[in-house]
Amino acid sequence: MRVLRNPPIVLTIAGSDPSGGAGMQADLKTFHRFGVYGTSVVTLITAQNTRGVTRVDLLDVETVSAQLQAVFSDVPPSAVKTGAIGSAPVIERVATYLEQHLNSAHLVVDPVMISKHGHHLLPADAVEALVKRLLPLATVVTPNWHEAAALSGKPVTDMASAREAASRLLHSGVRAVLITGGAGDSPLAADLLVTADQVEELPALRLASRSTHGTGCTFAAAVTAHLALGFNVGEATRHAKSFVHHAIDTAPDIGGGIGPVNHWA
Question: In which domain, by residue range, is 124 found?
Answer without folding.
Answer: 9-249
